[in-house]
Amino acid sequence: MEPQATPKPRKTPLLASNDQQLASQALSASLYWPANKWLTLRFVTAAEFSTLATAYSDAVGTRQQAGSARPIEADELLDLDAKIEANLYRVKALLVDKYDKKKALAHYPTVGIIKSGKNYIIDRERTKRAAALTTLVAGLSTEKIGDGDHGTAFWAPIATRYNELVDHLTDTNGDISKAVAAKDTLRNQIEQVLYSLAKVLDANYPDDAEYKAELRAAGYQREKYR
User: What's the CA gap between 100 and 105, in Å, rounded?
Assistant: First the structure.
């Protein structure tokens, strides 16, 4: 039986993949570099890297802040969707009471109701649903069926809040896209500098133990990036 080869130890990454960890790593390196005057890179100075590290850390924070409210607002939209689905039949019933069942269908568009397959619904696409809810509220007045517990007093707050949430989520998604783009651009620059610094340290500390010690001093805490 042939002896099995001993597997090579898995190398730990030099840089963190997590944005927060990498930002912390970059800030640590930006403090280490000025304290070691001999350490130079041709394409960037210690001062420039310090500015870059701070900008990246700020960009990471901006990205997280931009998306912090989104899950809560998305849950609120889901609650409103459920409320809409559960009570739309009441609007249909008001039209049937005013007209008859067959004639009521012609008045559905006035209150934002469309046909989808065999069913009559409020459009489920969020931006279209927001617009349809505004139409619904106006239509209740047009059709003179807005009185009662499930008329205008019931639907107006839903329409208002739904439109607010959709508008804010649309703005938030745009803000997140911009924040991600800015963060990713800075991350690429940060990684280039950190890899370059590590190579300089490797060249100047041929002893493996000293090299690893300097890496740690410069913020490369590789055991955290597994």
Answer: 9
Q: What is the pTM of this model?
A: 0.55
- List the chain domain ranges: 19-67+176-225, 71-172
108, pLDDT greater than 70: yes
Of 218, 178, 175, 181, nearest to 196 by C-alpha is 218
Q: Which of 65, 61, 73, 63 is nearest to 170 (CA)?
A: 73
Helix H or strand E segment including 95: helix 70-98
Instruction: Please give the Cα distance from 143 to 146 (Å, whole number).
Output: 8
Helix (H, G, I), strand (E, B) or coil at 197: helix
Question: Which tokens in the block code for residue 71?
Answer: 């899950």
Confidence band (pLDDT; 50, 70, 90) for 59?
confident
